[in-house]
Amino acid sequence: VQLVESGGGLVQPGGSLRLSCAASGFTFSQYVMSWYRQAPGKERELVAISGSLGDSTYYADSVKGRFTISRDNAKNTVYLQMNSLKPEDTAVYYCKAVLPVSGSRLPYWGQGTQVTVSS
User: Fold this and answer.
1) What CA–CA distance (Å, rounded) separates 93 from 110?
2) Rounded distance, CA 36 to CA 46, Å?
3) CB 28 within 8 A of CB 73
4) C-alpha to C-alpha distance for 35 and 37, rounded to whole angstroms
5) Which ranges in 1-119 belong to alpha helices (H)?
6) Residue 52 near residue 30, CB atoms below 8 Å
7) Which helix or strand (DSSP H or E) is residue 96 part of?
8) Beta-ladder partners of 26
């Protein structure tokens, strides 16, 4: 299983970024995918969730109306479109899959991509 995030960078407040998470090693289209973030000195927090078909989504209140999660099951990729970025969105962003392994459910994480919102 491999999850590889990309698309992070430095952006000014009010700007936009689109993060990508390319997945491999499992049947991507069958699983829920989610995005988390972790700011310095803070716990990792859930940002958004996409159902396996992309037709059901959930957003943290802090990003609702500004971020959009989507997926392309043909490309095994989940995206996070981030608009109207704020300095408080600065964090390392991770994608996550929870997969069945030997009767249990285990989380798999990517390496993360840094998003910095600053003027």
Assistant:
1) 9
2) 4
3) yes
4) 7
5) none
6) yes
7) strand 91-101
8) none
Contact 82, 67 (CB under 8 A): yes
SS3 helix, strand, coil % of the chain, rounded to 5?
Answer: 5, 55, 40
3-state secondary structure of 91: strand
CA distance 33 to 51: 7
- Pick the closest to residue 108 from 19, 48, 24 (CA basis): 24
pLDDT number for residue 73:
97
> Token digits for 45?
């927090």
pLDDT tens figures, 69-87: 999 999 999 999 999 999 9
